Each structure stands twice: as structure tokens, then as C-alpha cells.
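Help! Submission page says 'invalid entity' but I think these are all valid:
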Amino acid sequence: MDLHLTDAQATAEERAAVDSELGAPESGWQGGQRQSGETRAASNGDAPGRRHRLLPVLHAIHNGIGWISPGALNYVSLRLDVAPAEVYGVASFYGMFSLQPRPPVVGHVCDDIACVTRGSEKVCAELEGKLGPAGSPCSGGRAIWLRSQCLGLCERAPAALVTSAGKKSQERVLAHASADAVQSLINNAVRGRLPAEPDVLNLQASVPQAVQKSEPSPLRLLRRIAQGGASTPEGYQRLGGYEGLRKALALGPEGTLRELSASKLLGRGGAAFPIAKKWEALFLQRNALQKNPDRKHYVICNADESEPGTFKDRILMEGDPFAVVEGMTIGGFVTGAPQGYVYLRGEYPLAAKRMQEAIQSAKESGLLGDNILGSGLQFDIEIRRGAGAYICGEETALFNSIEGYRGEPRNKPPFPTQSGLFRQPTAINNVETLVNVPGIIREGGAAYAKLGTNNSAGTRLFCLSGHVARPGVYEVAMGTTLSRLIDLAGGVAGSVRLQAVLLGGAAGTFVGPQELDTALTFEATRAIGATLGSGVVMLFDDTVDLRQILLRIASFFRHETCGQCVPCRVGVVRQQEALQRLVDAEPLGSSTQEIALLREMAQAMRDASICGLGQTAASALESALQRWSLFS
Amino acid sequence: MILLWGSNARETHPIFFHHLLKGVRNGAEFYVVDPRHTSSASWANLWLGLDVGSDISLANAVGREIIAAGLANQEFIRHATSGFEAYKKHVEKYTLERAERETGVPAEAIRRMAQAYARAPRAQICWTLGITEHHNAVDNVVALINLALLTGHVGRYGSGVNPLRGQNNVQGGGDMGAIPDRLTGFQHVENDSLRAKFEKAWGVKIQPKRGWHLSDMFEAMDHGHLTTLYVLGENPADSEADRHQALKRLGGLEFLLVQDLFYTKTAELADVVLPAAAGAFESEGTVTSSERRVQRVRRTVPPPAGVRDDLEIIFDLARRLGHDWGTPDPEAIWNELRALSPMHGGMSYRRLEEMDGIQWPCYDESHPGEMFLHGRLWSEPLIGPRAPFSMVEFEPPVDQLDEQYPIRLTTGRRLDDYNTGVQTREYSSPLRRKEALDVSPEDGQQYKLREGETVRVTSRRGSLMAPVRFDPGLRPGLAFLSVHAHDQVATNELTIDAVDPKSGTSEFKATAIRIEKV
Amino acid sequence: MLDAPQPTIPLPRGPVPHAPPQPGRRSIELKIDGKSVSVAEGSTILDAAKKLGIDTPTLCFLESLTPVNVCRVCVVELEGSRTLVPACSRKVEPNMSIKTDSERVRLSRRLVLEFLASSVDLSTAPEMQEYIERYAANPERFGPAAATVAQPVKIDNDLYVRDYSKCVLCYKCVEACGVDAQNTFAIAVAGRGFSAHIATEFDAPLPDSACVYCGNCIGVCPTGALMFKSEYDMRRAGTWDERRQTQTDTICPYCGVGCDLTVHQQDGQIVRVTSPLDHSVTHGNLCIKGRFGWQFVQIQPAGKQEE
């Protein structure tokens, strides 16, 4: 297109960062040194095909420089043939990117609801004393620390993440975090002395069932992790890996679909949609695929786990990455998709590293690529990292994000299986869902369906955090009661007197101590007006001021709404304002009036918002208002 | 497939370009032929940056490649054209290698364009002044028409050859008979029966032979054959090529009458100036757009005191010359025209209004107008004459480059301005920058220039001072000036009045210049 | 600057050309507010409602733009759907049953209007004022401290003014600047959430941006956030009076494309130029010359005569 750029020029470092992602520019028209032949003919026909590189390129600049300058943005614009205003619109959408000069080292300290139960406010207060207020430069201007939303490290709360931009960019997780440890990590980062590994998966801390001897039922999803995991394809296969894919190849796509259908596996990302239906929808479109060379199917693993309190997918990717690869490969086989994407949360450095390593070694071992297991199956996987936008976990927002647009959800219909990534039929599944697949195929769908209850088959991962004795990810058969699950995790911690349990995260619902008998199934939770959501089980003892927790959740949504539709964009602001007035005991009119207003807003947001974010932004608040008199 | 040849429609026809981009987004392939890598070219699947004035070599090579690749539409050629064998023989020598030598465009790019054009289910060629402002303008046009005939990309929906008209009523002017050999509705003045029809209606004798075109008139001034000139809404003192000579000619007239909205450079030379109303905003009538759409213009605001409508002025002049035509009534005049010009017959004011304009021909009030022309070429049996292939040879621009004048200057418009700028300079465009000579960054470096630095620009006819600006859309050896700001940079001091004998257009697009530091 | 004349015409009369026939669309029957209606496949609920004479409020919808369905003021209740659906973009399906004025619909529409009116200056959006009355919306209920998008007006060029205090973020300007018309992409939505706003790159002033001043964004702006400088100046001077204005269509005096200009005049002066959305040439769009290049017919610049 006819780009019009400002005079700002990229520095050599910024160009190098972009080129590290895209390769050197092909011509002067794309920002390179121009050669004489180019002034006689030039082709820009492939320009539309370059846009999807935008997010990776922005990451490259951010990792290399620490912020995105006008000059760097201009160079991206030239390289990708995307107007600078559009690049700006996309870059400014993501919380991780800074469009103002920022020191290369950034300490993100979580102050979200799980961490707050474990002392994050103390950490932040001490850091203010040591480093100055959040957001202001420290360590001689080479670093900055920021308060952060949930980092998905809730089992090790309070948590922090330090990132360091530069030629060799690095990330390091710190959990449990203390102010001293954060300060020392930041100082080390400034001196270029971060450890090589971004984190270590500690079974004791994160997967307590793996080290508990009194395990009641055998682990399925966590089995290999409990067995020490596998870092090579060979190791993975020794632990039963790729038996699912081999069997799927033998069964054929239809046979594989039959097993999936028999398993009654429902999606584990929150929406509980049958995976067999999604895959079948693509399978049924395979004829159109042959007729039209422009058509392509995609398989996507939604690994943008950002629901506060959720960390199960992170642990699966860190501990059993080949299972994700195998699940997706079976998906590629069934749906006829030659290409898969893992959209992985930006704040998950270890998961990204493990997944990248797994994909690489799978390629080298013939488990991805043109002739998988010698069967002629062609399938490849690319990782795309998110950049700090909760909304990108919404499937259509995720498509836009991969395509290089702002991560704003699309209206549905059309549904992804008809028009998804690049407007092509797309099967998108959550990590846990996909990790279920190889086992289901290996052992047969019927065997799986016998686990759990009639309407909620199989086992399920739950993320226990907050005031619980042994936080971590737990796998139990669906139908296990909430109290049994809490017992498994050692019971209530803190004051030991349970006040509330948040199920399903910020978009979920609170339940009270009297509801602990509830079976953890889709149907039983629905019956009490609750949800399993993404498997969050966050406990709050009676010392917690629930009003503050509600306010923190409201602030979360105010921060994370994409801003596209009016009910959500303004609704979450008005909700937070009203809640603040109630917490401050300065209601407009009376508290009753404020609560009525909140309920009206909640209905409009639920009814009229485009996507799940707005539709559930009042859900936790409503559940709390229903159960407790917090404001009288 | 859309082939834009010698046009920067993105800036000169912005709303047309919206339609074009809609096509591109719907999957149309888009090719641009232009010496400059323009804002239009930056959208193209492939841009071909030929040497200024080498269009015929390129077009003939494309024709040869289409034939050689077996992609000529033999059925259409047999059915509706004449002269194919001669054309085939004629273009035989325009090999890709030769074309690469003459145009500077890599042979592979030419081959790719030829194949894309010929293979497309629908394709059209659109051009603007890059084709017509040359000493061999008409030859350039027929070289492109040959390609449409060769592939059958004419007379069908979505196909065709399409000159993008640069002015809101340049098409209408021609339709009305403001060309040397035609009466209204393109009826030939040398055709006795057609002429008789007009003579009968008007009660006067009409000269039975063609008149002069613009350049003929200016030449006639030199020989004293033309001594009186009536100029309506033109500014030849700024717009004619080789301005120095044009001013001399206008200055030598016995009587110059100028009718205009503005006190233009030409008006300054006039004996009498008649202030006229603005056609598009202050008068009633019709104009005809590039797509042959006749549309109504209306008085939207009253003209200032003392300023009169063109019709009123002409009626008054007629009265003074002894012909009382009564009071001007635009609709009555239009209806008179409809009675004489069959292709306008069905275009009543009422229908023009209801249908948002009508594309000619529109023969009667039940006729919808025609969205494209030449459909007759596809009818069985063929209606009317066969469409002829034409044999045209490449001839480089008249103003040749040499050691003294090593840089090729080409001219054109910018988005926010129009022609000599008399209308557009009245509004404050944030895009408008001081007029400057655009050169390639490489030339800037070679001549050791800074952006904004004033240089001397000299052609074989004149010389001027202008600031320079670097434009990566230009290659080394190619420079660009607009024609909008003669008060700042009198571009036509430099240009050559090498005229196409068939159209009367000067070779504004190709001037040899040198650039000197001052 | 004459174009070359056409070669030999008149040509013999041939058959009248036609566009190739479009594939036939089947008719879909659905129920709206208890009444049956049939519309062509591919139509929206909004189209069907219009056919029944139901007046559905819209804000971000415009015939000439791709529906973005972000304002949600057109939501309706679709039987079997968990949430309300946007009428402007939801395609009809056989046997849909729709309510356009149920309690749920009215509540959501009212809240949407209250959300907007409490955060955005709607003083130059008369249509919104009508909706606010129709749905008895009360934007005051969020109190005086409710966050707004108020900010200083941006005047950085002589042609048009941007007052984003009046922006409802309907995306229309972005669409008109982008794929739906101009394809310049000088502006995009930047930021996120309540801070999302229309911006050039790094919020640079327009003259530093890619803006080509076609003004197609002004043409589609529903709230007066984008306004001709002439109109802005007259409004400030208190001389803007639409009752004294007339609109006359003519054809642009510049290039040969034949764009229809709707000239708005007040007291013999041109005060603004638009183009009809349903015109086959422009679809409501113009270029800088068509939209702003009329100053040469003014005796005095618009908006200045009273000063």
C-alpha cells in the first residue's frame, strides 16, 4: 500500500531486532538498501500475507530494546506493509508493550486476588520502600517495577516475573517472592546475571499429587508429570507417548472421531463444548478443501491461560509438552489441517521454552513435518506468544491477534469451525482438552466416558490457591465434591475458617462454606448458579475483606476489557465505580439503590456484550451479592 | 485483472481508485506501468518502471509474448478484428530482450504481465496522461487497444480499455463537439447528411471541413492565420508546453477575449475579460464523466454580483453579433441537443435525475444507457465494422537525453491540486508543500544536494530555480515536477511543445533537463 | 492539459450490455414481534425489521460500511439465544423468532444509551438525544464523578476538527479511512478498554500522519466528533443554523470520475459538502478536492463572514 511514514528512523539495534524475526529486507521497498534492479520492477502482491508476523515482530523489538519507538514502528510498517496507525493500534492494545521509553529490566509483581491472600501487598509495600513507587525507574534508571495482574503462578503466591530486554533477552520467574528477592533479581538482571532457565517446575510446590503417596485414583493428565516428565520424544514415547497418534492413524479420521465422540469429552477452557463436534465440523468440510486451493484448515491450541487463579495449562506445558504436540497432531490428522498454532500466554516463559523445545525435537524426530511417523501425514506447529491481553483467550480475539490485528472478539456466528483463523475453518481447543485426546484414543472413548459422571465425563484439573494448605494443580474425576478436593489439598489454611470459594476465576462465581458438598460437574455447579470455568478453586478465609476482592476483580475487568462494545467498555467502568462507592460507604442514594444499579448493569452486560468477557464481568460480583450482605 | 498504465489514479482519480481497490480486495490482480513508483504502484502485484515514452515497445512486446505463448483469443480475433496477421508480423521483432533494452523493464516482468493479462478471465487497461501526453499519443493508445483485441478483453462486463479522464467534463466537451472534426454526438462534420441535419435545425451553413486542434491554433498564431482568440475557462499561458513560446504567441494576437472565474495569467494578457460563474456550483446543465455518465450540475449558490453564467454571456454575445436567441434555458438547450445527437436521445432531465446520471449511448427514453461499450464485437453475426489492429512503432521522446541534458523530467498532478492551481490554491490544503523538483535519493547524493536546497533546472527551452525533494519513488535519472504552481515553479518553461499530429497534445511527459547546484 | 479525443465514433448500435446475473437468493421467513416477514437470504435482522416498518435504533451501523456491531444499541431478543443479538449484523435464518421491544431489549438499549451519554458529549448528536428520550435513559444515575472521555478538542489543520470528547467509538471513521473506502489507514483504534480511542500513530497531529484529508471520516461520524472547520467555526460564532440551510446536488468540478456533491449552503455560502451514500460512483466518499476544494466559489471563507 502507499505508506506514509513520519521521519523517525529505526536505530541499528531496532532494525536488527526486527530482522531477527523477519530476516533481512528483500528490497529497498521494504526498508532495505535499494538495488538498481528494483527501480524497474517491484512486486507487492504478497503484502497481505505478511501482516500475521506483526505480533512476533513487536515481541522481537520489545525483547531487544525494551520499548517500541516511533522509528522502530515505522520500520515494522515498511517491512510488513501495514500502515503505522494500524501498527500503533495493535501495539498499544497489549499490556506488555511499552510505547514510551522504558528501562530494559522490568519487575512485574502480582497483586491479584490469589497473591493478595499470600502477602503480595506486603511485598509491594516493601518494594516501594526499597525501589521507589511502582512505575518509576530504579537501579540507576536501568530497571522499573510494576504491579501486575495474575501471573498464573498462584500455587506459589506471591509471585513475580522479571524480564530483561537486550541482545540476549531473558525472563525469570520468582515465586514465592519476597521484596528482598525481587530486588536482588532486578539487580542481577541489570547486571545481566539472570539464570539461564526462566523457572523450574517443582512438583512439591505445583503438583502435590505427584509426591503424595496416598493417591486415591490414578492420574491420567498428570501421570507423566508425576513420573518425572519427558524432555525428549524418546522419553515421551517410553511413557506411553504417541500411542494415541499411532492408533488414530490406524483408525483413520472417522474412527478417531468415533472414539472422541464416545468419550463425551467436553472442552476444558470454560465453555464445555464437545471436542468431537468441533473436529467433525472440519472433517465434514474436507471436500471443499480439495476443490479450492485457497482453503485451509487450522488447528489451534488455546494456551492463553489468563483467567486469574488458573495455572493448570501452564503446568501441563511445562511438564508434558509433547502431550500437547501429540494432541494437536491428532487434531491435524482428523481435521485435515496442515498447520497448527499454539497461542501461548506472554507471561509464561518456561512453558514457551518447553513447548518450543518439544516442537523442535518433534520435528527432528519426524513427529512433526511432512511425513509424521512415516504415515504421510503432514502437520506443523508454530507458537505465537500473547502480549498481556486477557481478552486474547477468547477464541475469535485470539484469531485476530494471530492475524496481526487488535485482539478484539468477533461476533458469532460465524463460528470458528466455519470461519476462524484467516477466515478459514478452525478447530480451537484448550491445552487440557488436547492433552486428554491421546489418552482417549489410546484407551478408547468408552473407557474415558466411564470416568466421572454421565454428563461430565473424565477427569479434570483444578487449580487450588488462596487459603488452602497445599496449593497446586489437582486431577480428580469429575463428580468429586468440592470438600473432597479441598481435603485433598490439605484443607483450609490461613485462619482455617473458610469464608468463600471462588470457582472459575474472575469470570466465575463465589460459593460459600455451606455449598462444599457440591459435586464438581458441569451440571451440579450450574444447579447452584456456579460454574467450573477454567478450574479455579480459590479459597478465602474469614480474615479476607471480600469487598476488596470484589473491587480487585472489578478493576481487573476494567483493565482487561478490549473496549470494543459499549456495554462492556463502559459497563465495567461503571461497575467498578459503583463498587468503589459502596466500599467507601459513599453510595449514590442508598446501598440498596447502588446494588439495584449494579444488577441492572450486570444484566445489560450479560445480554448485550459481544463476548464472554463482558457477559461474565459481573458474574463473581453477582454471586457474592446473592450470598452475602456485604454492603449493609 | 486491472492494468493501470501511465496513471497515478490513487492521487488523480481517488474515488475511482476506491472502486479499483475493492476489486483488488476481491481478488483482482493489479499491475501498474509507470516510470515512477507511485502511490498507485505501491498497491500493485507488479509494477513495471519503464523509461518515459517507451510504452509502445512495452505494449508490442506484451502482444508478441501473448501470441508466442499461444494465449491470443483466436476465436475473437477471427470474429471481430482485422489485420491480425500483419500485427503478428509487425510485433515479431519486439522480443522481450529488445523491450528490456528499450524500456529498462526486466524481460521476466514483461512476460509475467503479458501472461497475467492474457490469462485473466476479465481484464481491463486504464490509462491517463502518461499515455496521451506524448508526441505519439494516439499511437500509444492504439498499442494498448491492440492488446485488448488480441485477448478479447473488450466489449464484455469487467473488461475493456478505459481512459481515465482528467477533468470533470473533458468527455462532455468532446461529446458536445468541441473537437476539430466532429459535431455534437461525435457526428463527423465532413459527413454531408449529418452536417445537413444540423444546418437544417440551426438555419446556418456549417463549414464542411475539420477545424484546428489546440496545437494547430497556437501554430497558426505564428503564421498570422489566427489573430483573435476567445478562451473559456482555460489558462494556456500557464498550461501550454514551452511556456515561453506560448506567451509570445498569445501576446502577438490582435484580440484576446478571456472568460473565466479568475484573473488568470492568460486573463492578464487579454483585451477583454468576462467574469464567469463557476460551472459546477453556480450554473445549471450537465457534465459527462469518464464512464460516459451524463450527470446534472446545479446552481448551489448564487454567483457573486457582476458575474454571469456562461450561457448568459454567450447568448449576449450572439445578440451583439445579430442573433437573438432569447433567454437562455439550460433544459431547452439540452433538449435541442437530444434531438440532434442520437446517443443522448433518451436523456431527459427527469431521467438524468431519477437515474443518478445515464451512461451514453442512450437512444430513447426506454433505453437504460450502456455500462460498457463495444458489446457489438461479440454479437453473432458481428454488428458493424471489424476492429482493426494497428501497427505502431516505438519512437523515443522528441526531447532526447544527452550529456548536456542527462535527466528525464516528467510531469503530473498531486492529490490536492488541480491543473494550473487557480481553483485549488483558494483552499488551504494541509498536504500542500512548496512546489519542488522531486529527484531520486541517489541523484540527490550524486549531485551532493540537501533536501530543500534550491537548484537550477534547465531544459533546451528554458530554465528555472526550484528546491529539491527526494522521492524514493523515482529512480536515478528521473525527476518530477507538478504543473500546479506556476507562481512558484513554472514547469512549462521547461517542457517541449512536440505535438502529436493526431490529437494535438504536447509531450508534457518527457523533457530533458540538467540540474545544477547554485 | 487536454486529453486525447476518442477515435472513431459513433459506432453502430449493438445489444444493450448487462452485468452477469447474480445467483438467486432464496427467501427466508421469520417472525418479528409476532409478525411474519420474508427477506432474501443474506439479509440481516435489521433489514427484516425495516421491512416490517420497525424502527430499530442504530449508531455504529451504516449502509456503506461493514457492520462492526459494537454499539449494541440495536440488540434484539432471539428465541433460543442465551444473549441478545445485534440486529445490524445478524443474518436471518429460517424460523427465527425475534422480539424487538421486550423488557430485556429495552433494558439493554437503555443501559447502552446511559453508558454512552454518561461518558461522551452527545450535544451534536441529535439522533442520540431522540433515542435517549425514547428509552427514558437517565445518564445522571452514575453520579457526577463518572469517568468520561472528555479531552481538549484537536485543531491541527484548516479543514477539519476532531473533538474526541464526542467520540462514541463506533469505528465508522476507521472503516471509512480503511478497507471500506479510502484505504489510507491514517487512523485506527489505539489503546484498550475505556482508554481505547481513535488515533494516528503515536497520536501524532494529522499533518504529521498519513491523513489525506478526504474527509470520509467526517462523512460517517454520527456525533459531530469530526466536523468541518467551517461548521465548527460557525457553531462557535453562533451562526450555524441548519434551518437556514439548503442542500443541492451537483457534480464535482475536478477530475473525470463524476462524484456527486451535496452542497450545503447557508445565506449563499457553502458551509459543507457531503455525498449521498447510495450514489453508485461515490458511495458517500469524496477526496480532498471534492470535499474541501470549493473555497474558490466563496466570496468570503465560510464561517468568517460574521467576524
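Support: the input was valid. A stray whitespace character was the problem, and the output above is from the cleaned input. The first strand of chain B starts at residue 2 and ends at 5.
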